[in-house]
Amino acid sequence: MTNSDIQDIRNDFPILTEKIHGKNLIYFDNAATTQKPRCVVEKIEDAYYHYNANIHRGVHYLSQVATEANENSRGIIANFIHAKNNHEIIFTRGTTEAINLVAFSFGEAFCKEGDEIVVSVMEHHSNIVPWQMLCERKGMKLRVIPMNDRGELLMDEYKQLLNEKTRLVAIAHVSNVLGTINPVKEIINIAHKNEIPVLVDGAQAVPHLPVNVTELDADFYVFSGHKIYASTGIGVLYGKEKWLNLMPPYQGGGEMISTVTFEKTTYNELPFKFEAGTPDYVGSVALAEAIQYVEKIGLQNIDNYERELLNYATAKLSEVEGLRIIGTAKEKSAVISFLVGNIHPYDMGMLLDKLGIAVRTGHHCAQPLIDSLGIPGTVRASFAFYNTKEEIDTFVEAVKKVSEMLR
Ligand code: PMP
User: Fold this and answer.
1) Do 23 and 163 reside in the same domain of the chain?
2) 124 CA to centre of ligand 1 in angstroms
3) Is residue 158 part of a domain?
4) What CA–CA distances, in Å, run from 152 to 232, 309, 328?
5) How far apart are CA 191 and CA 166, in angstroms?
6) Ligand 1 touching residue 100 (CB < 6 A)
7) What is the distance between the alpha carbons of residues 334 and 370, in angstroms, rounded to a whole number?
8) What is the pLDDT of residues 328-357, one digit of tens each?
9) If we measure between CA atoms, which residue out of 330, 335, 337, 319 comes closest to residue 375?
């Protein structure tokens, strides 16, 4: 992408011209949430101003338009991740809710005392805690794939963990702390040879890399709208029909029913069986709009450009005295976690903020990973396609300045 392409893109994101403490905003907290292009915000406004009505239930015109918009969005999302069927796309509130849904419903259908779930050491709490809750409920065990000191999973150890008690493998596609892109295709192949299904947490992958759930042969793939330039409160669970059909509903009420009597309720077909209550139909429309925006730029172009930013920032940051990058996997997404000497990440983050630079500090909801590294947390800069090398220059100078102040 050329500089003028990037400038055009930046013009689509009004927030990027905000001043923070009198300085130009440099937004490097994209792994936490991304900013929203004008088209997404306008789509939300359009929905509320022109066709807001509860979906699926109304015979009236607005309800039909809203229902159609919601289902059209489902189709756009299915195409985007190459799902075979639209009904394999379940709308959730986000990655966290999608994983909780699978941990509950898959757990009810397929898990029993003594069974095991395999996760990795670099998982986000959202891909640990729901499985721990399942383990507590059923008397099961959580097994953990370790990593090397670059932040790459140990595949031999992974193979050793799988056995006849393993019910499911749940793994991040991309680590939100280390940036590691895990070899999910290989992980899935190995699990499938043992007839074990795999859930992929794609929260940090879908906004940055082309994802094809059919090619990956993922059994479940989950992500959040707000990390891919859409609104908060909407997310996606992709699940293979064969699993979803065998799993009981997660929540009751709303459109998830077929018939209700006080004696017995029968459930709706997919995807509605898993969409209890009034869905976030405006969120789904916003998500589809964001996806179309991203597709217009092209995931491959985004991937290439963000890798350029990653390499540029990695080289520049390495010049800072005493700076250590946490996570140096060969396959990395545009996330850089680092520490400078023994400066506390929080102090670094606070002072960078005063210079208009938004980074994340702390354990990034991956406490077991941070503990295993024996560090108090990290400072994390995470990039999106609207970021520039000039911003990285300013950021690196700021890191140098703050390091000198705090040393
Ligand atoms: N998994 C990963 C890898 C993440 O980075 C995040 C968000 N930081 C989540 C899960 C949780 O996403 P959400 O809060 O949108 O449900």
Assistant:
1) no
2) 7
3) yes
4) 30, 21, 8
5) 9
6) no
7) 19
8) 999 999 999 999 999 999 999 999 999 999
9) 337
Q: What is the residue with the minimal CA distance to atom 14 of ligand 1?
A: 96
Record the pTM.
0.98
Nearest CA residue ID for atom 6, ligand 1: 203
Does residue 113 sit in the same domain as residue 165? yes
Does residue 283 share a domain with residue 363?
Answer: no
State the distance from the centre of ligand 1 to the C-alpha of 175, rounded, in angstroms.
10
One domain, residues 221 and 339 = no
- Residue 314 backbone phi and psi in degrees, to 5: -60, -45
- Rounded CA-CA distance 153/146 in Å is 6
| Residue owning the nearest CA to atom 8 of ligand 1 | 32
In short, whether 201's Cβ falls inside 6 Å of ligand 1 is: yes
- The residues that are catalytic are 365
Q: Are residues 303 and 154 in the same domain?
A: no
Given 295, 319, 341, the domain boundary residue is 295
94 lines ligand 1 (CB under 6 A): yes
- Mean pLDDT of the region 72-94: 98
Q: How confident is the model at residue 407 (pLDDT cuts 50, 70, 90)?
A: confident
Measured in angstroms, how far is the CA atom of residue 58 from the centroid of ligand 1?
34
The CATH number of the domain holding residue 334 is 3.90.1150.10
Q: What is the domain count for the chain? A: 2
Specify if 36 maps to a domain.
Answer: no
Beta bridge partners of 265: 260
**Which pLDDT belongs to residue 79?**
98
247 CA distance to ligand 1 middle (Å):
23
Which atom belonging to ligand 1 lies closest to the Cα atom of 172? Answer: 3
Q: Check pLDDT > 90 for residue 290.
A: yes
Question: Domain range spanning residue 262?
Answer: 41-295
182 lines ligand 1 (CB under 6 A): no
Sign of CA dihedral 137, 143, 149, 153: negative
Q: Kindly state if the Cβ of 203 falls inside 6 Å of ligand 1.
A: yes
CA separation for the pair 283, 266 (Å, rounded): 28
What rounded mean pLDDT belongs to the chain? 97
Asked whether 95 lines ligand 1 (CB < 6 A), one says: yes
